[in-house]
UniProtKB/TrEMBL annotation:
Keyword Cytoplasm found: yes
HAMAP family given in the database record: UreD
Name of the protein in question: Urease accessory protein UreD
Keyword terms of this UniProt record: Chaperone, Cytoplasm, Nickel insertion
Amino acid sequence: MSSGAQLAEPGAPFAPAVGTEETCGHPDGVHATARIRATYNGRVTTLPQLRSDGPFHLRRMPTNGKTARVGIIGAMSAPLGGDRLALDITAEDHAELDVTTAAATLALRGPTTAPATYDVRLTAGEHARLRWLPQPLISAADSNLRQTYTVNLAATSRLVLREEQLLGRTNEKPGHLVSRIRVHHAGRLLLDQHTAYGDPEPGWNGPAVLDGHRAVGQLLVVDPELDVRRAPVLLREGTKDGCAVLAPLAGGPALLATAVAPTSSALRELLDEALSHAFGE
């Protein structure tokens, strides 16, 4: 696999230019951490902590049954160069939590050439269910973003994590986008994946990586009841609408779908199809 999209070595360090809690060294960067905590009271999931900060405005959404739903609304343009943004989301034991965003996240060039960081930390307790289903992240021209997902799951928790990235707006080159997903399940490393797109990454748009596609995404499903003995499934191979592969992960009850597509709508269709395959629908 080319350096444009590669698996990180297990245990290899990944250090954004500046940590989320540190100062960025100039007055232009925004530092913000929003927090969501869901608990189960024996009947339904409640939200004892819903803390908005900076560009993040958190809103409870209507729901039926046991699940709590939260929508994240952008209150300002972000992330820009130099910003340090973080989301800390926890579903405690037996809680069921769905989190989404109201619109796409747009990474833009800022007043500094320093990279922005966007850290999403997801935690699910025993018998909890957490679904992180945001709208796409758009890497606009001249932007520079480091995005990380840090996920900690209990042995009996369930997770659906969707990541969608659009490399540039219409007729526009993308910025520099580096993303890492690191997942621990029952205290053991399940997934550690590092991808990088846009200049100056070598070969990121070549036939071994994106092959000219501008939309890329992943879907991670972790569930103790998954059938992970299946062979990998190829979706829409040989078509002009992109393709995806759904494969089991060696370290646990998990399936990972990776997809590339020419448009955001085609990418969403592929990931939705992969989700249906994951649960045998």
